[in-house]
Fold this sequence. Notes:
The complex is a heterodimer of chains A (153) and B (424). With 153 residues, chain A is of the alpha+beta class. Chain A has helices at residues 12-15, 18-29, 34-44, 48-55, 77-81, 86-96, 138-150; strands spanning 69-74, 109-114, 126-128, 131-133. The longest helix of chain B is centred in the last third of the chain and has 20 residues, at 396-415. Chain B has helices at 18-23, 28-36, 39-49, 61-67, 91-98, 100-114, 128-143, 174-181, 210-222, 224-228, 261-268, 302-307, 326-340, 346-363, 371-382, 390-394, 396-415; strands spanning 77-82, 118-123, 159-164, 205-209, 238-245, 251-256, 278-282, 291-292, 316-321. Chain B has 424 residues and is an alpha/beta fold. Classes of the chains: A alpha+beta (153), B alpha/beta (424).
Amino acid sequence: MLANPRTRIRNPKKRAMLLSALYIAQEQYGWLSPEAIQRVADRLSLTPGQVFSTASFYTMFKLEPQGRYAVQVCEGLSCYLVGGAEPVIEQVKQRLNIEPGETTPDGRFSLEIVQCLAACDLAPAIKVNDELYGDLTAEKLEALLTELAKKEI
Amino acid sequence: MFEPVLTANIHRPDSEKIAVYLAHGGYAAAQKALTQYTPEELIDIVKRSGLRGRGGAGFPAGVKWGFMPKDPSVEKIVAVNTDEGEPGTFKDRQIVERDPHQVIEGVIIASYAVGASRAYVYIRGEFFLGVKRWIKAIADAYEGGFLGKDILGSGFNLDMSVHRGAGAYICGEETAMIESLEGKPGNPRMKPPYPAQVGLFGLPTLVHNIETLACIRHIVLRGPEWFAGIGSEQSKGPKIFSVSGHVNRPGNYELPLGTSLREIIYEHAEGVRGGRQIKAIIPGGASTPVLTADQIDTLMTFEDLEKAGSQLGTGAIVVMDETTCIVEAARRTTKFFAHESCGRCVPCRIGSVRLFETLDRIEHGKGLAEDIDRALYLAENIDGRTFCPMGAALVNPARSTILKFRPEYEYHIEHKHCLNGEKN
């Protein structure tokens, strides 16, 4: 076999489940708390350090509690060119009274600045949790935030 | 007359569904490949087509297939790269959301040709709809007998599964993607060994971008001569160009390689917003050097863009009109790369941040006279001195804009604000 000692790991296919396991844990706990990290480590026979090193590498794994609606604003070039990025971030900040990286006190919203969402044809674009919203205008954004503010959580 | 093939299906209602795909000749290429050709013949067909990878590097696909070991006792893998993250690029998102079966068909043919029994899809974590579409398409392909055991009665077996990334641009680099598939941080590996020798789980692995795999079906059905008849000497076949920025109709346009930037921007994307003049064009995604307005007649091929001092990259065109602050465009793009550096090697980890800080100073009116040369010096010491191609990529926005728009940088430093005076 051609296995390379440098890439050989114990039980490689089990570790390959780590990203999926982290998604499941994040969904159950809302974020990857130390308890969640420990549980994933136990299930996959890894150390908490190994799990943490992978979890902390990827921006979609949250090591702090998040709002129910994570508003992610793209600051990429194509969004910026058509009036997105900072003006959109500013509007969300004003409306929710939080800074990027923060969560509203009621735990409903958090604001995050993200990199290119591969939706440049729909620029300016944002994501709320897993949902993509494109061709954004100030009015559309206001309507969306109003709607989400009223939703049951 | 050029006939689009890669995007022929995507405008149909429910184009992502297997029933629609089958109703329009779907899986006929897999049938043909598995029943009429030997693996060696298929490798030869792809070589003769002249197909080059569509993920950015442009490596000849058939040659890559030929690198895979021939020993049937060695387990082999195909890894499918849907980790689209290059700013300006959105072709793969559309392919997977609107026509995933076209890619599965390419995966089946490629796996058969190189003798792989497992295919792993890696998809960008942010593509939630894409993940759902991949999972459904693969399940339907199993049901239809196109995946699993004894595919289409040929005796060939292939299993395929989807793995979701979690937000890291670097995982689009093939060895970083392999690390991520193994459940590790996406740090690129030293090459050699190349994935064709030591890839996923230490096994020989063929890695392809999904647009490359989408081409396979059409090459098998229409023949390599048809494919090689499109495009230029070194750039064959159809290509999806993603156009965004200051154009009237941003979107994906499938055109022959060798179409001019002028035709793409003015005919297909319907020109510049407000009828303004073009200032700069990024021709192949954020990591490719910018072109100026007088280079608008450059043809979109690997060789013509190289002659023009840039690269074809992913074919993602970002148009910036005369009102654009070029320093801000470079600053923003460099910030992206500084954010996405995996942190493994020093020139990229520290150099990208220093480069960003330098541009940030200039843009915000705090630039020092020596900052322009400092940026060029940093670029010189990052390019070619990093573990993976990210180093060469990250210096391009800063370096190319300084080389082409140096007076605008000098104006920022002298006057502490932009040429068009909007902000500082």
